[in-house]
From TrEMBL:
Entries under PANTHER family matching the protein: ENDOPLASMIC RETICULUM MANNOSYL-OLIGOSACCHARIDE 1,2-ALPHA-MANNOSIDASE (PTHR11742:SF55), MANNOSYL-OLIGOSACCHARIDE ALPHA-1,2-MANNOSIDASE-RELATED (PTHR11742)
A GO cellular component entry from the record: membrane
GO BP term, example: ERAD pathway
Record-level Gene Ontology MF annotations: calcium ion binding; mannosyl-oligosaccharide 1,2-alpha-mannosidase activity
Cofactor(s) needed: Ca(2+)
Segments of skewed composition (Basic and acidic residues): 105-118
Enzyme category, top tier: hydrolase
Protein's recorded name: alpha-1,2-Mannosidase
Protein's UniProt keywords contain Chaperone: no
Domain of life: Eukaryota
């Protein structure tokens, strides 16, 4: 049966009322919205959520950037500097001597009150004051920092795409190589650089690799202890300190325990390599241990001991430091090779290059890192730096280039390694962070002059070449031998029964005589020239070796010759530029860093990344198919920090390890001080007086 069709009448409501227009009274107003509890609960979560988002990204006072670079609102989640009672450096900020401080013939370069970034410079404070708000516009230096960030992204994306999971990229062919344990060293070395540059998405993607790591090695494979500590362990610890990601601490603790058997030698001096699964160790290619390899793990292991509470980390690494305080040195310098079994030196080669560099570096830096709690490390640094100035610093005869070289027994080799160009940065860091009662004025001046002069020479080895990049090793023109004196040295009285006068040592007699002679007669040792300059009243207000010098593009007229022509993407010169810029405020170090970066972009950039070049005086250069992990960990990081206007990693709160991984300065807890026998109520400062002359100003003992 079909349904009954609906008619128009059946659709009408029984209450339908038809009204004639104009005859019906208007109905009373009834609002369509009726407040009810159900409606209130429907909209309340939206209102609360929008309010929270508005506060987080617009109204919040510090206004942190969202997944952006580390600008004004950059915060370190894990590290809280205000939790400390105050900055570790409570002395008044040291100000470098203004006349001629830049080595430019006596002209002063005071920082501007307004450098168009909104910052007011603060001498010796590690950069700009955070009291003034930066202007919203992006300055030229922030733009340059962005260029460095782009270079990093190009390099890491090339590695990730073509060599992910392997240690390093082959940047010419887009290949891959395992040369540091096969765990992906480039990723570990680059973690903190990603965070510092604000590449947080890239950083979080990399965490997946870290989370799955087990640091496996085959039974017959060994991890080099030194390189694994500074690159892998240092990278993990720094990334954890910056980001607070727990998995980074877990992996750092895992790796720290796996590497610990390296210390199980008869002397406690670490072995060259260790198997992370079996704990077996072996010696290296040199047989003996290199001094840098034994003394460049204290920062990593002491910080790891602090954040994990594992006492064995501290005890193992500090045992080596204690042995250094017991060694009797003939000239204040540490030999480069040591017997692992006995823990004693085996040669008379003294250097700040490849075999020793970071060991000198860690003396000062571990003292800073541990809140100035270890006076033995400080005393070793002060004694060593004075000995370096005394014995290893020399001048060339023409441009008066100041350089640091090696000693074989007592004979200088006049070789300068690119690796040694870290030294000016170390001197500058010491001048910046050591108070006046530890580093007296006269010694402080010499350390600053040495920093400026050495960095100038490192720059010259770049500026002189056709590519604008520095060779890996050079030999410097030696000063002509001293002429025989036309008169004997000043006579002194020999002790007798009737005389109490003590005869001067032959060395001091020689210096007293030669300090009054002409340039041709004084010899090439820098300290002799400085002492004569001081005796003459400091003419020009800038000592020899600390002045700005012109470049020399003609290889035949240079005062140096390449022993190794290659540029290996090394960071040491840039590192010193960065520290000198932060501690002196001289813009020339930034400008020189930019010139170096432009040369890298012009000559080292490949389709897949960046390559070392084989000859710095050949244009176009020939590439070497390698991109070392330290290029991303150090070179590009220091360039970025050199250019960025914000003081992202202030020296008051952070210390870089030798692979440029920043670690936060910390204070030991009371139980740690007791467990490790730390007594910070007194600090040894006897070494602060320079050992180079008996007339040096003595410090006040604390």
């Amino acid at each position: 049966m079909l349904p009954t069709p609906t008619t128009s009448s059946s659709r009408r409501s029984p209450n339908l009322v038809i009204s004639i227009p104009g005859t019906r009274q208007p109905a009373p107003f009834r609002p369509h919205f009726k407040p009810s509890g159900k409606l209130l609960f429907r909209y309340l979560p939206w209102v609360v959520g929008c309010t929270i988002l508005l506060w987080l990204f617009i109204l919040r006072p510090d206004n942190p950037p969202f997944r952006g670079g580390p600008g004004e609102g950059f915060r370190v989640p894990h590290y809280h500097p205000h939790s400390r009672p105050g900055p570790p450096f409570t002395r008044q900020a040291w100000r470098p001597p203004q006349p001629g401080a830049g080595g430019d013939g006596g002209h002063e370069h005071p920082p501007p009150e307004d450098d168009h970034t909104g910052f007011k410079w603060k001498w010796g404070s590690g950069g700009a004051s955070n009291k003034a708000k930066p202007q919203p516009q992006v300055g030229i230096w922030d733009t340059r920092a962005e260029k460095v960030k782009e270079a990093f992204v190009h390099a890491f994306e090339g590695y990730k795409r073509h060599a992910g999971g392997y240690d390093e990229l082959l940047p010419i062919v887009g290949g891959k190589v395992n040369n540091f344990n096969g765990w992906g060293v480039t990723l570990y070395d680059a973690l903190d650089t990603m965070w510092i540059m604000g590449l947080h998405d890239m950083f979080r993607d990399a965490l997946e690799t870290v989370a799955k790591a087990d640091f496996y090695l085959k039974p017959d494979d060994y991890a080099p202890f030194f390189e694994t500590t500074i690159r892998y362990l240092g990278g993990l610890l720094s990334a954890y300190a910056l980001s607070g990601e727990p998995v980074l601490l877990t992996r750092a603790d895992d790796l720290g325990r796996m590497l610990l058997p390296a210390f199980d030698s008869p002397s406690g001096f670490p072995m060259f390599a260790v198997n992370t699964k079996t704990g077996q160790t072996r010696k290296g290619w040199a047989g003996d241990s290199l001094w840098a390899e034994g003394l460049s793990n204290q920062m990593e292991y002491k910080y790891l001991a602090h954040i994990t509470g594992r006492e064995e980390y501290y005890n193992k690494t500090d045992h080596v430091m204690q042995r250094m305080t017991q060694i009797s040195l003939t000239n204040g310098l540490f030999p480069t090779r040591w017997d692992t079994a006995s823990g004693t030196p085996t040669n008379q080669h003294y250097s700040v290059g490849a075999f020793a560099d970071s060991a000198y570096e860690y003396m000062l830096k571990q003292w800073l890192l541990t809140g100035r709690s270890e006076p033995h490390a400080l005393e070793l640094y002060l004694n060593s730096t004075n000995a370096i100035i005394e014995h290893l610093l020399h001048l060339t005869p023409k441009r008066k280039l100041l350089y640091v070289t090696d000693l074989l027994s007592e004979s200088p080799t006049h070789r300068l390694e690119h690796l040694s160009c870290f030294l000016p940065g170390l001197f500058a860091l010491g001048v910046q962070t050591l108070p006046e009662d530890i580093l007296p004025a006269k010694t402080r001046d010499r350390h600053l002059w040495a920093a400026q002069g050495l960095a100038e020479t490192c720059w010259v080895t770049y500026a002189d070449t056709k590519t604008g990049l520095g060779p890996d090793e050079v030999t410097m023109e030696a000063w002509p031998p001293k002429k025989r004196p036309s008169a004997p040295p000043p006579t002194t009285t020999t002790p007798t029964a009737d005389s109490t006068t003590t005869e001067m040592t032959p060395h001091l007699k020689d210096r007293a005589f030669w300090s009054s002679q002409s340039d041709e007669d004084i010899g090439g040792r820098w300290l002799d020239h400085v002492e004569r300059w001081e005796k003459e009243g400091r003419p020009g207000r800038v000592p020899p070796g600390a002045k700005t010098v012109p470049k020399e593009t003609d290889p035949q007229k240079r005062e140096w010759k390449s022993l190794k022509d290659s540029y290996l993407l090394r960071p040491e010169t840039i590192e010193s530029f960065y520290i000198l810029w932060k501690t002196t405020g001289e813009v020339k170090w930034r400008e020189r860093g930019w010139t170096v970066f432009e040369a890298i972009e012009r000559h080292a950039k490949t389709k897949y990344g960046y390559a070392s070049i084989t000859n710095v005086d050949q244009v176009p250069p020939q590439w070497k198919d390698e991109m070392p992990s330290y290029f991303l960990a150090e070179t590009l990081k220091y360039l970025y920090l050199l250019f960025i206007d914000d003081d992202i990693i202030p020296f008051e709160y952070w210390v870089f390890n030798t692979e440029a991984h920043p670690l936060p300065i910390f204070d030991w807890a009371p139980w740690e001080r007791q467990a490790y026998g730390l007594n910070t109520t007194t600090t040894s400062t006897t070494a602060a007086a320079s050992t180079t002359t008996p007339n040096d100003e003595l410090p006040n003992k604390s």
